[in-house]
Amino acid sequence: MIDHHIKIAQELAVASKQVAATVSLLDEGATVPFISRYRKELTGSLDEVQITSIRDRIQQLRDLDKRREAILKSMTDMGKLTPELQQQINEAETMVNLEDIYLPYRPKRTTRATKAREKGLQPLADLIFTQNKVDLSAEAEKYLDAEKGVNSAEEALAGARDIIAETISENAEIRAQLRDMFINKGTFQSKVAPGKEEAGIKYKDYFDWTEPVKTAPSHRILAMRRGEKEEILYLDILPPEDDAIALLDRTFVTSNNSTSNQIRLAIADGYKRLLKPSMETEARLLTKKKADEEAIRVFAENARQLLLAAPLGQKRVMAIDPGFRTGCKVVCLDEQGKLLEYTAIFPHTGAGQAREAEKTVKHLFETYKIEAIAIGNGTAGRETETFIRNLQLPGVTIVMVNESGASIYSASEVAREEFPDKDVTVRGAVSIGRRLMDPLAELVKIDPKSIGVGQYQHDVDQNKLQTSLDDTVISCVNAVGVELNTASKQVLAYVSGLGPQLAQNIVDYRNQNGAFKRREQLKKVPRLGDKAFEQAAGFLRIQGSDNPLEASGVHPERYSLVEQIAKDSNATIRDLMTNDKLRKSIPLQKYTSDKVGLPTLNDIMAELAKPGRDPREQFEAFSFTEGVNEIKDLKVGMKLPGIVTNITAFGAFVDIGVHQDGLVHLSQITNRFIKDPNEVLKVHQHVEVTVTEVDASRKRISLSMKGEEKERSNNNPVRKPQPSASGNQTPNRNKREPETDMQSKLAALKAKFK
């Protein structure tokens, strides 16, 4: 284990004691957010990215150790383990290396080589492998045996070649070199399957496509694989065959005689029949793994940005799930998102119905003192927006809301439990309204794969995707903090140390006993023990408590420390929170101990300055260009406002209000060179784009942001956070919080493991 700590420390460029402390905390059940926030003294202030990397890497190394032990036991039981093999197995650093070493000894199905060995041809193969000059025909005739099925010298030589071919194909060094050759010199080739041209029009770009394996980007690999799965494309990896054969010849052919000729024949057969298919399969798996990792990284980063989108906050909201013939479902919600009333209006089915719809909306607006109207961006969304704006309701904010996943939520068990007597359309409208008020709180109720910010999410490794998304949601929820007395059980489930069952127990306790007054009361919740309390308490908030620390990110384990600081300063805790000069005068070094260092003390001071601060941006209303509602309304050269909905490795997708997102290619995002769209953009960012191409038949819109960069910079100056009316801070809307870079930083660190 110590060796593992040193290895990880070297890979991450940190101290081994930091790794050891982190692994120890993880093994004790501590979560990544808790460790990074409240155990900085132990870890040397490692951040979430580093801690997650340590967690994943130690698990990877432990899995490798388990497989190593299993292989050693298997080879010992077979009597095949030699000191040399044991050393090779112990020194293997990857699962691939380990399996290559084990391959010749692994129990396998019957092969041509095993049949040849059963016929007693192993000695003949060994003789040929020496490549000494011998009379091959005479030697081969020694192995003739009609009962064993060896009826001629040629049959004997063929069997020997089968043994040699398998031996060569199982050579660990050769497999490693060929694997590298297939990845670095191989070529992807995709072609359309005969007769599938029309059915596979979306794969038109890949009907006759060739690209080096080494440089093929994730999205193209996954697109070609999906086309192959749908039987639209034929996909192959064309290897550097001449180079591969030359490598095998150089390695195994050492003479120039009749035995050497047998080796050459065995090489040609073994490469075509064994090595080439095996290496192609491995190249497919390796490129798929790499493509998955990149797609998952991009998806998780998009999900993070969407989850951390600016919340409108506690406002009285009217939410509309639009529709034409079936009408628009309208709901009214109070400041906490509680459903007050619901109905249906038909503003698009005739003048009479439109007048009735107008009366209904105005009545609801006045009755519930509506402050904002959320309109889903699906079918009839733009038309409904126009209808609502034409009503000229005073002082109301009208916002188009991305409704991706709302239908998933409305049919889910969560929605049925919350609104058992309401139909799916009402539930969907409620979800649209709530995601305007607090995107994070609402979106955690939906499978992240359904919120519309990824590509090929159903094609990648689902277990790895789920782990990454769980990490992302947990990170976001704990970064923002959770109001203990109003949070749903779905949000509470993502709080450090809790989970679904404890979240349900908290809600049940809250319903039976009323609102929590102190965090300490959590210990009365059934099955919520000291460990869960330690992990969760700092991320939970209680507004309105008589102890102001309950609404902050200061952990209860440090309350006594804050109280001592206040006492020594002849002040109250509220004085510490409101008096900047007082806080700056505190000699923090005086309060350090073996458990509390300056990192924790600095965090406490920062939290006292901005208790319970929300790291998300300040909400800003947005509206699309009037009269541009469908793709047919677009003209090349149009400048339009839009919202970034999805970021990929090759560019960003932008909603411009025509029910079809346009693509801003990486080369069109900015006038300067960038490698990653995330350097400039983030999901839900408001941008201005220029239409450069419209292909209505394929529903493709090309956009550009070049030339807009200077204007964006001038229009969006960096602003310092300003206190809000609630006392919380309004975060800088242009400066990305450190958490939002987690996935990209994590990917970079993981690259060191390979």
Automatic annotation (TrEMBL):
GO terms for molecular function: mRNA binding; structural constituent of ribosome. SMART domains: S1, YqgFc. Residues 723-732 have a biased composition (Polar residues). One of its GO terms (biological process) is nucleobase-containing compound metabolic process. Residues 700-754 are annotated as: Disordered. Residues 637-706 form the S1 motif domain. One of its GO terms (cellular component) is cytoplasm. This is RNA-binding protein. It comes from Mucilaginibacter galii.
